[in-house]
Structures are given as structure tokens and as C-alpha cells.
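The protein record now logged underneath.
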Amino acid sequence: MIKNKISELGNEQKWNHNITLPDGTQTSPGKQTSHGKNLVKWQRIESILNTLNLKNKKVLDLGCNEGFFSFEMAEKGALVSGIDIDPLRIKKANFVKSVFDVNNPTFNVIDIYSEEFKNLEQFDFCLCMGFVHRIPDPYSAIKAIGSKTDTILFEWKALKQGHHSDSIAMFSKKDIDNIDYYGTEYWLLTYNALETILKRNNFKFFYKIDDPRQRRAILVASKKSNKLFDKKDQIIHRGRIMTFLSHTKKYLKTIFKIFQGKINS
């Protein structure tokens, strides 16, 4: 029966999170090697959450998707509210919750730009996984989040062009995703671009983890100090020269293809 329901919900919308249910059934079985997959993301952030100590803390899982991270944080003793703009994602999250037969976390359809979001309570911590590059107006969204919490963890698809210290945002070249509309990419930001927005909204402490291979960046920001911020950033400083050489290589490849095409014609 559970497998049939998973299949039914998957036909409405493809499962994103791979969640293992009590009977061993997985919602989205298969390889979990990409840094965009929830199990890999969890491996990258779990030690950070342990340092922040979420026990008995009120946590907002913003863009919670199908709830994997909400359930994991609830296991650590957090009181979790998961919200997402996509009703089908929330439908699946609530199905998983019913299978686990738990009261915590809660899941609701809420738009971050809505009055309903403004009326939410205050939270001790906010988790934003795969969120920043999927919102059309990151500045307004981050300002809204900052009004609800003092500490945020962002994981996002960072801008590949440019150096970490450059405050750059580039609009995504990808088309609107007609199959998964809420999965559409908008702005790709460098670390410093996101950090600059946060500083303008009174965040003072930052901790960064780089991902040079797939460029899934992690940035923890807070308005108050924590022992997490005593740690050294895990940033690979490739430097501007390496960035320049990388871009030059791409441009030369493009020129070669154009030149080769002219010869063949």
C-alpha cells in the first residue's frame, strides 16, 4: 500500500528527496552521488547543525520540498516548521509524515512573499537548501527571512564565473521549467554577493564551505556569535589568475569550434 502511494504521488510529480520509510521503502531510490542530492547535502551540513545544537530550538525549513531535512532536524530534537510554495511537495511531505506517524515537523504551503509568511512566529534557526537560486528576488526574500530569525544556513548553486570575493549575481540562462515550475533557476550568486546582501540586513558572522567540483556552496550567517564562527572557512582559493585561465580555456575552445566550422563549410 505504501509503495503504491509513493508511485501514485510520483506520477503526479517526480520525487526529489530520497526518504527511507519505516518498512525500508525508499521514495526515490538510486544513486546519491551528486551534491544536489539530499543524502549528500545532509552529509555536508550535519556537523554544522550539531555545532549549532538545534535541540528544543524552533526551526524553519524554508523551501522544505518533501521534508527530508525537516525530519532529520526533528530527530535532533528541533521543533520544525517546513514550508514550501509547491503544494505537491507539501502533499508528499505530509504523506511521509503520516507514514512516520509523528507530530513534528509540520508542513504548510506558504509563499515567502506573502502576508502569511509575515505573520509567522520567530525562529531560532532557518534552513535554506537549494533555495537562493530558485527565487526571482533574492534580496527581498533574504530580507524577509532575516525578519524571522537570527541564524540561517544557505546551500545553493553558486555562480561559477568570477572569484569568491567578487560580489556578482548573474541571471540564469536556463528556460522556465514547465514540468517543475517552482524548480526554475533565476539568480546565481557568488559567496560575496550573498554575504553582502546579508550584511545589509544586519548579519555579522559568516562561515563558508566551498564545493569547487560542483559549486554547491554553503554559507552560514548569523546576527550573533557562535562557536561555529571560530572555525576557519573551508574555501579553495583558486585566485583570480586561475579563474582567468579557466575562462580563457573556455573561450579558446569556443573560438576553435567556430574556426573549425568555417573550415568544414
